[in-house]
Each structure stands twice: as C-alpha cells, then as structure tokens.
Amino acid sequence: MINLEISSEFPYPYYCLMKAFFTLVLSLIIGIIHAQKFDDLAKTPPMGWNSWNKFGCDINEKIIREMADAMVSTGLKDAGYDYLVIDDCWQIRRDDNGTIVADPERCPSGMKSLGDYIHSKGLKFGIYSDAGTATCQGRPGSRGYEFQDARTYAAWGVDYLKYDWCNHGKQNSEASYTTMRDALFKAGRPVVFSICEWGTTKPWEWARDIGHLSRSTEDIINCFDCKNYWGGMGVTGIIDLFADLYKYAGPGHWNDADMLEIGNGVLIPAEERLHLSMWAMFASPLMAGNDIRSVSKETVSILTNKEVIAIDQDPLGVAALRWMQYGDLEIWFRPLEGGNYAFCFINRGSQPVTLDQDLKTTVRKYAIDANFMVRDLWKHQEIGTTAENVKGVLLPHDVLMVKLTKK
Ligand code: GLA
Description:
Layout: H1 12-34, E1 47-50, H2 52-55, H3 61-73, H4 76-79, E2 83-85, E3 91-94, E4 100-102, H5 111-120, E5 124-130, H6 146-156, E6 160-164, H7 173-187, E7 192-195, E8 213-215, H8 235-241, E9 254-256, H9 269-281, E10 286-288, H10 297-303, H11 306-312, E11 321-326, E12 329-335, E13 341-347, E14 353-357, E15 361-363, E16 366-368, E17 372-376, E18 381-385, E19 390-394, E20 399-406
Parallel strand pairs: 1-2, 1-10, 2-5, 5-6, 6-7, 7-8, 8-9
Antiparallel strand pairs: 3-4, 11-12, 12-13, 13-20, 14-19, 15-16, 17-18, 17-20
Bound molecules: alpha-D-galactopyranose.
C-alpha cells in the first residue's frame, strides 16, 4: 500500500498532486478491469425478429406471444432466428423511484412475464431503449437512468438491448453508449448490446469494444431503391453504404444493415433474395421484420435458406467488399472459413444482364485458382467449377449467390 500521509518534508501541494495522480491511475486500472462488454455473445451475427418494421408503435403482448409461437412453428427459430426483440413503445413512464414502467394497456402481464413466455419457447428476449432523454416515439429514454434500467432489464430476464439515439441533445455518442455498456455489465446478466446510432458519428470507428452490433445506416424503407428526405433508404441505398465498411466487422462486433423487409408485401421475390443475400455477405445481423404469424411459404423459404444463412454466420467473420461494378451489375466477394469463398452477383437495373465472369483471381490476400466447386445457394446445386467462367442471365433486381468450395 502506498503511504500518502503528509510528512513535514513533503509540501502539501505536492501531496495533493501525488494523490490526484494515484487516484487517476487507480481509477483507470479499475475502469480497464470492470468496464467491458460481455464477450462471446455474438461470435457470429445475431439473428431474430424485431417488431418495428411491421408494427411500429402498434404492439402489445398478444402480438408478441403469438410471434414467439410463430417463430417456432414456421421453423424460423430452427433456422437460427432466436432473438425476439420488442422495439419502441413498450414503455410508458417512470414510477416514483425512477423505475421504467411498461405500458399496462399494451403489456398488462408485465415484461417479466412476457420474457418468461419468450424464454419458454426457447427464444431470447430483447427490448429497446434510447441513450437520450426520450425514445424516437417520445417514451422515456435511459439518459440518467442507465444503471437503474440495466438492473431492471436483468430482473426481467432481458438478453438483448437495442439502444437508440433520439433526443440526445449534446450528448457524446461514444460516452453515452459506453455508460450503458458499463451499466449492463455491472447488472451482471449477459446482454447483447445493439447500438442504434444510425452511422451518424461513424460507430464502426469506436463501437467495437462497446456493443456487439452497431447500426450503420438510417432506417431501412420498405422498397428496393427509394430514399426519403430524412435519410431513410431502401435495399440498394444500404448496399452502397456498406461498400467500405467490411474492414470494421468481425466476431463480436458487427455492422448492422437494419432489420429485414422480407415478407412485408413490397419487395418482389427476386429483391427479397437479393436483400437476404447481401445482408449475409455483409455479415449483418439478420432480424426478420415481417408478421410471421401470417407468413407465406415463399417468404419462409427465403428467410430460412440455410445455405445463405451459413454465409452470414461464417465463423471467419470477414465481411464482403464490392469487387466489381459493370453498370448495373455488381459482384461482391467474401472469404469464408476453410479457404472457401462466397460471391454475390446482383443486378440493380431494370434490364436483364448477361454474366460471363472468370472467378480465378486474387482479391486482397485471397487467391482463387481453378480448383473450386461453384454452388448456387438459391438453386441449391453445383453449377460448375472455377476452371470455367460463371455464365448466365441475371434478371432485373435478381441475385446469383455462389459458394466456392475447394475440391
Ligand atoms: C429509430 C430506429 C428504428 C426504430 C425506431 C423506433 O428510427 O432507427 O429502427 O427503432 O427508432 O422509434
């Protein structure tokens, strides 16, 4: 133990300086030991369902319970979609002790009971809050209540927190998300921490040790290539934003391309296949956003394509980069575990495009020779080897996703 008693030979100002210095060093050491996120919770990108895209604020516990049932009965859970996340509007006020209160009209049985139901289905329980004073829909945010909220979530059995960025005033994003990370860690229940800061302050540069995933874009819009005035965008707008983000993703820290719009009635099947394929190429979390109680067989078969999901969940965790662009045709590339590769050909235009592409190449440090089998991950069949060019016609807004496996 260092003795900092005042001695007659040690002038008081020096004593104060020394004390301040040692206090600072001590708090830094304690900070390093205690402040961390829960490791190993998201070695591959989280998958699940989130209420926002389909229901917005119009949620209640009946819908959530039915959705939990449907995640099991449709096979989504077996395909890997195991987080059920209740987005904005479950909360209504704080009580006299500052504890966050669930809206009793929407959730009369309470969040603990709802979480228990979700867990009883073998699913994990996710909720939503906001780093500012209020959520995007004007419900109470967690600003100033981070540690109390984290303890409440732990008591409810929460496994996943999506943490938004509305009404943050002059708050610093990194500091705000760090506070909630520390609060969750201190509360002691392992929670996947989903940063939802929309890419505003480049979270890919600072969020790696704070959250398990961070939203890289404004909100997705249910369309293929539209944009709105405040920054929301469809599938292709998000694809463009991901062109340079691959270097920031990896096991435990994923770039989040936002929830899926598959099965929400606007995208045609080709666009839905392209949407899932590209999210898998990005190693993005896959959060379904449709009403899975009334889902069509076609939507289920797209969402549960195991070969495409396996690309998303590849343990190497290296995200895709845009390798080639020829007009409306783009080719994306992703290295996989075991020296294998995925390629995605997408047609963004309104006319068919003809493919005739040699895949023998070196992309970054990855060299591809003639010794790979090429498998179409939507047709579920081998279509040749890398000794020959990939050939075919890609219809408007359609995708060809292939996996290259060493022979
Ligand atoms: C923001 C988020 C969305 C959703 C809404 C809820 O817009 O980006 O994903 O959570 O808030 O209000």
